[in-house]
Amino acid sequence: MSRYVVTGGAGFIGSHLVERLWSNGHEVVAIDNLMTGRIANLDGLRGKTRYQFVEADVSDRFPDVGKADGVFHMASPASPKDFVPLAIPILRVGSLGTMHALEYSLKQGSWFLLASTSEVYGDPEVHPQREDYFGNVNPIGVRGVYDESKRFAEALTMAYHRNKKVSTSIVRIFNTYGPRMRLNDGRVIPNFISQALHGEPLTIYGDGLQTRSLCYVDDLVDGIVRFADKRPVEPINLGNDHEMTVKLLAETIVHLTQSRSSYSFTPLPEDDPKQRCPVLTRAQKTLGWSPSTKLEVGLQKTIDYFRKIL
Ligand code: NAD
Ligand code: UDP
Each residue of 63-78: pLDDT tens digit? Predict the structure, then answer.
């Protein structure tokens, strides 16, 4: 049994990770300031042994949670809808929050994992994206606050690894979906499913020919927990390499929900990446991991979840 700390533990991915670590027999401390997460995401663990929730903003300070074998630093708003209203908290958590988590890891001798993102590749000119691609990011655009915050967090992580000998890993997460995404999250899956279930037009941004590759959350968490055993230093992409257009995704969701919704086309947001798909060779080689959930299966589980909460 190990003792792990998960920042952002009440969020969408964080709460699934906390549950998985706990189910694997570990002790888990979830830290969250509930900015975009919900304590209800962790209701299943309330009152259990080997589990603790601490409400704290890691950008201010890292709470004293005792010794830990590892820190999964998942805290950060992640939806493009939040990139303007939460611009400064996003920059704070990527910089100060990451530094506090690294300092804690240094002090406690803990392994540290940074939850980074495919957004470090920006609007990629190299396709699909391998980890050695440096990216194409507009530092002063509206997405820049998130992209640069994560790029800075990666640089900081490597500096603590090189200069202070902290054992660190970096996971670059590609678009992930599943139960516990917020209904009003603004990301494409909650928007399309909620619109389809309400019989409203699905809001396709641009012509809908931009692509994404969507990973079901259980697969992603399978991959993340493997980092704790292998502790690779080089960044590793995790996601699904089944690439599709946003338009086809909309049509698939309308089909699966048996909705009578139509489609409405609105302008593409600034700097919206035109294409995105991970190369997963490193994940396969280093972690022995590849995603296994078919899109229709993951979407159906997510639709069932949204039906229940609506
Ligand atoms: P989320 O918003 O559901 O979870 C983030 C959690 O972090 C929330 O519970 C939030 O309240 C908490 N948080 C934010 N700032 C904090 C702070 N200063 N102190 C303490 N807690 C704080 O988002 P998510 O989709 O679950 O994303 C989790 C992580 O994965 C993020 O770091 C995100 O950048 C990364 N990521 C997610 C995706 C995806 O597709 N979901 C893709 C790439 C990267
Ligand atoms: N998108 C869309 N309609 C929506 C929400 C998003 O067409 O209601 C598009 C968005 O422009 C992007 C893709 O879906 O091309 C994925 O968007 P999301 O916000 O989920 O994540 P991103 O990959 O952009 O960070």
Answer: 999 999 999 999 999 9
Cis peptide bond upstream of 128, omega within 30: yes
8 pocket-lining for ligand 1 (C-beta < 6 Å): yes
pTM attached to this predicted model = 0.98
Q: Taking the alpha carbons of 95, 97, 101, 104 in that order, is the dihedral positive or negative?
A: positive
Residue 246 sits at φ, ψ, to 5 deg, of -65, -35
Q: Can 146 be counted among the known catalytic residues?
A: yes
Token pair 């990139």 in the structure block, residue: 83
Question: Confidence class of residue 84 from pLDDT cuts 50, 70 and 90?
Answer: very high
Ramachandran area for residue 86 (φ above 0: left; ψ -120 to 50: alpha; else beta): alpha
| Ligand 1 atom having least distance to the Cα of 92 | 18
Predicted local confidence at residue 115, as pLDDT: 99
CA distance 95 to 168: 16
CA of 71 to the centre of ligand 1 (A): 14
φ/ψ (deg, to 5) at 265: -105, 125
The one catalytic residue in 146, 160, 177, 216 is 146
